[in-house]
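Chain A, query sequence.
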Amino acid sequence: MKNSIRARLTPSWTSYVGAAHGVLTAANMTDFSLSQMMGMTGIGFHFIVHEECCPSSVTVYDWTSEHQQAMARIGIFAEVNMAEPRTPICDAARRHTIQRIRESVDRGIGAILWGVDTGEFGVAYGYDDDDQVLLVSGVASAGSESGLPQGPDGQCPVYMAFCDASAK
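Chain A, predicted structure.
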């Protein structure tokens, strides 16, 4: 079985907001422009610099807390699953997360995933049972269909956020 929805990454200088915007817009959960979403979530104002100006310092913050709060600011409940690769819980987290992605896609809502095709956020917008892959849209694969393996040899989803509308 193959199921996919129209959620895709919205190109942006911050891949998390690009992924959230793509997911929420496709699910008709927001009508914010990308610029409005940057401002309303507060993520457009993140300024994180390592004391030695390390280039990766922009990604060194508490993703789980910051992203849930950002979504809450625009009335969206975000569930987060997180597990580090090569840890004892990674396989269990991978199976659980893949099941949650499938459930979310079946409800018509994509999921936000870290490390889709680069060290950036992307969108899981479907799955293909025959090929055992998640259908993903990332920074490097924008505009084309690519698959992320679901099986035991697939990467452990390090970060996954599922969005649902709160009572507005």
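The mean pLDDT is 83. The chain has four helices and seven strands.
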